[in-house]
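Fig. S4 source data, part A: sequence.
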Amino acid sequence: MRGLGQVIRDAAELSLRMIRDLLDVNSIEAGRLSLERRPDDVEAIVAKAREMLAPLAAERGIELVVDVPPVLPGVEVDAERVIQVIGNLASNALEFTRPGGTVTIGAAAMADGIQLSVTDSWPGIPADDLPRLFDRFTLPTPARRSPAYPADPGGPGAPTPRAVRA
């Protein structure tokens, strides 16, 4: 069992992340999201994201898989923002994937760059919810919510991943 200090630290980090996400959404909507692009390695970026998410996956009994080819071209990205996007998407996947399921963080070389992906083994987003996917504070259809979070209050939604496309 985790100690009280760790629980408090985790709660504080979650609160800070939520505040940053809300500030990012405001910056995105105002067209002022700051990106600091630098040459970086996709494998290293995905590894950092996995390291950040591994404790949550283990706690929930979900396998966290990395599917990155051994050789990918270098990229020029804001690594912190890319890790944030992967973290947001994978956190949602971990929330809705049932214990025993799998969440995969992947990367693939495409003709025009690198494609990052987060996939999971849950049933998916109902077609009725897709038009609101990028709306702030949007909740999934109640039947699709995780049993661990049946009254999830929502969050900033997916504007950050949409805005950080590189």
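Fig. S4 source data, part B ends here. The chain is about 40% helix and 15% strand.
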